[in-house]
Design brief:
Layout: H1 6-14, H2 18-38, H3 50-67, H4 78-104, E1 107-109, E2 115-117, H5 127-147, H6 150-160, H7 166-173, H8 177-197, H9 202-208
Antiparallel strand pairs: 1-2
Helix pairs in contact: 1-2, 2-3, 2-4, 3-4, 5-8, 6-8, 7-8
């Protein structure tokens, strides 16, 4: 990996051609490696799925860095500045993911094939709430069936309903753990987008069952 001054980083990232491509590749490697140290207190960076997470965070951070590169004042090393942006992006995404997982992973099978949030612990909801709950879960069940691929459904059900770990799902589906993490990540995003198209958010679903 080439050593660059601040000026070289700025110039190469703002140009085009092989120099730009090399600078982007090197910066992505630096950011991904740096996130392992920067997020030690936040996530298990030795987990197999972290590699995919780090790549996603680094890619998103790169876009933010390129968009704000003119704001770099040169008071520190360029890579230090870029690393701070990457950590900030990662922490924001981790907070969002924890909220999303709490919202979407709260879906469980009631034994009859319908998906029901675990928050729906009240087996005898008030009459005014029962119809709304039933309608909401009809939407959710349909979206799980229609919006997700067979592999995504299999992985999501194994993770959410059966409580299987990523490694267990990988073994069951004969897949690499990183591929399973990506599969679950894509399934949640697709389900969230489908909910949005129905005019719903994960928070809306939770509120119905409160």
């Amino acid at each position: 990996m080439a050593q660059r001054t601040n000026e070289q980083w700025i110039n190469e990232l703002q140009t085009s051609g092989p120099a730009h491509d090399a600078a982007v590749a090197d910066l992505l490697n630096i950011l991904s490696s740096g996130l392992r140290r920067g997020l030690l207190s936040q996530v298990n960076t030795s987990a197999p799925e972290f590699e995919t997470q780090a790549e996603d965070f680094a890619q998103e951070a790169l876009l933010k860095i390129l968009a704000n590169i003119k704001s770099f004042a040169g008071r520190s090393k360029f890579t230090t500045w870029a690393h701070k942006i990457a950590v900030s992006v990662a922490l924001t995404e981790l907070r969002r993911k924890r909220w999303q997982d709490h919202s979407l992973d709260g879906m469980m099978d009631d034994g009859g094939g319908d998906y029901t949030p675990s928050l729906a612990a009240d087996k005898a909801p008030a009459p005014e709430n029962a119809a709304e709950r039933a309608e909401t879960m009809t939407h959710v069940a349909r979206l799980i069936e229609e919006a997700l691929t067979e592999k995504q459904r299999t992985a999501l059900v194994a993770s959410v309903i059966e409580g299987a770990t990523t490694n267990e799902i990988a073994q069951k589906m004969a897949m690499n753990p990183n591929a399973v993490y990506k599969l679950l990540h894509d399934a949640r995003l697709r389900l969230k987008r489908s909910l949005a198209q129905e005019g719903l958010t994960p928070a809306d679903i939770i509120n119905v069952f409160r």
